[in-house]
């Protein structure tokens, strides 16, 4: 679900920027890329619907914020869906909440009468409930109805405010209702949004001391914020419960909604550090293009709340392009905008420092960037800075012109951005030749022009060496060490060998001593094609150049020499799908036909019938059953007890488990032992009396 | 040989007469043992017919029959008045043991039945 980062090189330099504890960026404000991603993620299903009420609301709200016209064509269907839910009997507060908000976004014309009924239902929910989610849905629904022009007033707002406030905890989180101990940061955001709604709907002003307590709660909530090294801040839950875990995007979005809504309706400022608001904006922008519809909705809605809020408005510094070419004399261009790309107030951007790839300071002179009003871009000519090709970190400092803007906007002070400066690399003094092993005398040296294809023709045996050397120079005249310098030898039979050309301060030189390479080359003599590859991100003229061919004469392979592995017919075939595995499952046992089993079940009962008949023939009787009521009761209880134990066994076979059975058996056993003892001792006393009598 | 068969017949008849003299309660126990063994034989015949899957069910069925037969035989030994060894053991006590052991046996059987 990772978003696509626009500047992959920036990731390298984030670690370096940590040394300075600056904010380092690589975020871009909301742009058309986000709009097309949203249109794709919220594609409606075949019948034009977006799913359930909540998904429909998320879709239409995202389209509204981004200014996408798609939803106008689908608004009819969504309006009807919302209207059905508003009119349905016995709706839940959650359904009403989403339906009312959908009607608000799409401006469906809903009957005043329908809304009257909804208002009554929601007010009844507020009166009866003590669950945070129910408060949130009903207050939110009433607020949306009020915003659509209907007159709604919440009487007794103070007690509802108190009821929601009572669910707060000392660490800034909120509980879900009075009974459960489960609390979360997500619910804190919901609670703050609900409290803001109550303040808007109240007929009289809410007690300012209560408002002050909630402001303190918000400060405590912000103490639980988490951060990454690059100045990004986000909220996440402390306890991760697998079923309810909502993730940092949803949690942070909930808190942003709650805090900005609350700040909008109360007087006075909230005591939140500005860098945390900027960090939250960077978090949402840093997602890039989100992978799921819900994440897209949370990202876009949070950014719209941050775009103009009464706490701090974050201003984002971004580079439209991070690659600057010395050849085409590009200027360094920087944009400072709000999260949605709107213009920032008047400010100054200064280039403070340029750092090289190992945090080496290239220059520390403070240069102010000039401002282009028409394109809203700050620019600077970097040629005078004498920066060579390569990857750099540039530290900018933003300062607001008007002092009163300091309390309204937050810029983050120093921002670090990473750039790549590219240029044409000159290749000169390129030479290739064969030399003899011992003397080092070069038999034949040919000068190469590596800027065009060359076709040298060399021949060597296993006692000689191949030498290749060249120099790489940057536009400013320094030695250049590219990322990739490879020499490839390819035999006629398609066997390839790659060698890295080592570079020193002066030049790149490789010496291939064939005596040591005979085994590596699998003793294959013949024609080898030579290719040189030189490449780097900062090099505008990276090349893969065929140099020519080399006739190599190697000795005969001994018997035990390694053979080259068979080359794959298609080198990409190993990435293709593998053969289908057919699993062999344990074949189920053959069972006898049902009729046979039933027949034998009946047959098993036959001996029992025979037993009963035999008993009758023997003349069994119950004469010994005690006639006196006391002993008779015990005797019947004894037989009942045995019957109960057998019934327990049947239940055990059918559905109970061993522990439950043992538990019940314990009780029954004690009972049975007691009763049995009484009965049998009575019987034995009777029989001894008979014997003695 | 005719003498052998008539001897066998006489043997069986005298056995039958002697058996008729046994007390009724012992006859009840004997009848019970016969019934239980017959049940076990029917189960074995079924298994022979259809194969021994599931084996645990077969075992628990047969062993319950055999187990209760063994307990019944023990009861018969203890209750038999002619048996000098168990003269002092009241028959009710022996019966209580029989009931208890049967209940434990059947608990194990039910667990193993599956």
Write a concise keyword list for the protein shown above:
heterodimer; A: 693 residues; alpha+beta; Glycosyltransferase; Immunoglobulin-like; Coagulation Factor XIII, Chain A, domain 1; 4 domains; seven-stranded mixed beta sheet; five-stranded mixed beta sheet; 17 helices; 40% helix; flat; disordered N terminus; B: 114 residues; mainly alpha; 4 helices; 82% helix; 0% strand
**First CA to last CA of chain B: what distance?**
53 Å
**With helices defined by DSSP (H or I, 4 residues minimum), what is the helix count of chain A?**
17
Please give the share of residues in helix of chain A.
40-55%
Total E-strand runs of chain A = 26
What is the general shape of chain A?
flat
The percentage of residues in β strands of chain A lies in: 15-25%
Helix content of chain B: over 70%
What is the name of the CATH architecture of the largest domain in chain A?
A: Alpha/alpha barrel
The mean pLDDT of chain A is 84
What form of chain B results from the Cα inertia axes?
flat
- Major sheet description of chain B: none
Structural category of chain B is mainly alpha
Chain-averaged pLDDT of chain B: 88
The low-confidence runs of chain B, each spanning 5 or more residues with pLDDT under 50, are: none
Q: How many distinct folded domains of chain B?
A: 1
Q: Which stretches of chain A of 5+ consecutive residues score pLDDT under 50?
A: 1-22
Q: Structural class of the secondary elements of chain A?
A: alpha+beta
Largest sheet, strands/sense/barrel of chain A: 7 strands, mixed
| CATH topology (level 3) name of the largest domain in chain A | Glycosyltransferase
Q: Outline of this structure?
A:
Chain A is of the alpha+beta class and 693 residues long. Helices cover 40% and strands 21% of the residues of chain A.
